[in-house]
Amino acid sequence: MTTIDEITAWNILRHYSNECSQIDPDTHIAFYTIGSLPGGYYRPGQSDIDAVLIVSDGSEAIWGNSDTPGKRLAKLNERYKQDYGIPKDFGPFPLQPREMHPPYDPDKELTLEIARLKLQGKIVYGTFSLNDIPVPTREDFIRDFRHFEEYWDNEFSINTPVERMTSTQCTNTILMHLHRHLIIEKCAFEFDKRKIIPSCIDHDAPFLNKPALDMVQKFLLSEHISQQETNSLRQYVSDLRYNMNKLLNISGK
Description:
Oligomer: single chain
Helix content: 40-55%
Number of helices: 10
Structural class: alpha+beta
């Protein structure tokens, strides 16, 4: 399948937004792309295509929600993923204006997505200003992170214990915890995975294990890492999660 270059990715989003407007034009307010495309770090063949549908308040029956898209939207997402061979996943999700303002629903864990929309979002369709949308506060993020750790303890770790985590899962978990420190302690947002570790070094983040971080950077460059290296990352996941959660006062076993 042909690798999707940046121009093609933008065209896909434009076509997609037009089809979304046909689902229900009265409640489809706007369409924003977030992530690597507007952030300037899109990598053909590696990056997914992230986007947010801004829909009217109270339109769940049509669009679904951030966890479970409506039937027509889910079908459209799957068709685009299959037709274009989009890496990873293709899941633009619906977001209502009322969800972008505090107090945020902790069950939805939307604070990071709202920050991405506010700080890097670029509009593809419609008219919706982000000027009045606040960036979630430090306390908002801590609340969401705690909620995620409860999910980790009660659900994720049961099905995926650390000793069985893949290289991808280890890498994403390490970067997630390092990014948490940047957000909570430094009020710094770095959405490009390749830049999180350099940013942590610049900000003197704690618990930086250079050999393990070198493996993470190696993996991010699409280089193979050995089983022994993966085992080392698993150990670092355990140590980092425990120490970082304790430092940031976030619950977690």
